[in-house]
Design brief:
alpha/beta, single chain, about 550 residues
Length: about 550
Amino acid sequence: MDLRSLKNANVADLHTLADAYDALCKAYSQYAADWKSGTADRVHGSEWTGPAATAAIPVLDGITDKLRAATIELGCIGRDLRDCADAFTLARSRLRQALLDARAKGLSVDECGTVSRPPSTNPYRAPDREAQQKAAAEEIGRRIGAALAEATSVDERLAEALKRYADHAADQSGLDVRTASADAYLAATGNAARRLNTPDKDAAPTEVNGWWKALGPEGQQWCVSHHPQAIGNLDGIPAEVRDRVNRAHLRTLMTGIMKKHDGHLPMTSHEKALYHLYGPIVRRLDKDGRDPASPRVLLLGLGSEGKGRAVLSYGNPDTATDISAYVPGITTDTHSLGTAGRVHDGTNEAENALSLYRAASRKAPAGHSVASIVWLGYDPPGMDLGAASTKAGRDGAPAYAKFLSGLRAGHEGRPPHITSIGHSYGSYLVGQATRLATRPGSYDAAPDDVIFLGSPGVGVDKASDLGMPGRVWVGAADNDVVTRLPSKFGIDPDERWYGRDPASRHFDANRFTVDNWSRGNPVDAHTKYLTGRGGPSLDNIAAIVTGSGDVELEGRR
């Protein structure tokens, strides 16, 4: 929007157009009412039954809903036109006043909005006059710029709204009452993106959840329809909502790519990269619902940062009484959550979470329900020098602590029992996140229990340093080489790569039995804690998660 266009804008034309749409909406509303009372309501009141009625009545009700949705859409157009006309009027008024003030101060404004002052020719002018004129020119320049920016924003907002209505008319989505209601909410709030005050990405999950509830059903639907990217990974948003928007985003991104791959058609390098990143998640979700013995999978997080981000939940954490959140270790990526390869050997982290779900469901007391989450919200190191550094764990800990807080903030009913689980390098991250949550003044919510599996150290010397007395548990096979990694600094036999051995007497955690298979392959010893081949390990973990009390303990090292 340039200066000439705003200064000479005929805003009355927008009001005239809004009046025309309002009149059309009124006439259409009467038509819809006549249809409902003259046709649909009469059929419903006629006590008509039988196969024909069973087939016809849903069709009639569908027409009624479409007429209602179309009426809502027409009303939205008039409202948006009028709101934008008012905003144009305000911006134009601000511009005209700035131009008048410039003239009164002897300043000139060109067609681009640049303010200039004439050179001084009076030798007797006060010394500070030049500085005053300069300041006045800068102030008026800012006012002109603000008016033009506001008018441009209004123009873009109106163009976006009209395009949305046109698109909804073209693809007939505007005949869906939910879509129309979301548009009505947007039109009613004016600049909804600004007025909704979407929480910052660093906002506490309790704040996010409070904001979401305050939106009401229509505001929530508007967010899902028009701003899904802002809520798919936002801790504190309901799990079902996160799953819906993340699945929709994944479907939009990957449907064509999956067809190309499965049809052996050529793909661009970008498509190949996306397939490598998200293909395993698509395959995992495609299995959802095929096995009646498996729970529904909720996609609580998705991202392309680093090696990829994904958070999967077996069961709904918003309604479950017992929740586990599992953080895997080195070399984990989105392929570790897919369906290819040896999915039952302990290296597939989604299958590990599913195994825990099933074991915990068997252990859960009457009236309890379970959710088992695998959290890949950080970049685990590979089999390289990165595994020798604590950086990935330290960087990922705040996000994990916040995620656990979101589980509490979004939960329905009585407070859930949350168990934080870390395997291998993931145990270090879990240890750091627990310290963040239990420190004085922390805004993060601590878990109820913490479990370390195959841990090379969690960054503290004693279980009490985690601020959860009696609630720290350790599973460590005797021949798991990762739990034996020596300290890089000293000769203390209890020191491990990332701190004191959590299975040691000095650490003073609860060590549960895992040793039915510990005399086998050392690699198996490190990867089988959450599998059926883990002996008592899986059942003990499930007992901790559900609080069933039958945890079998063994002596510390």
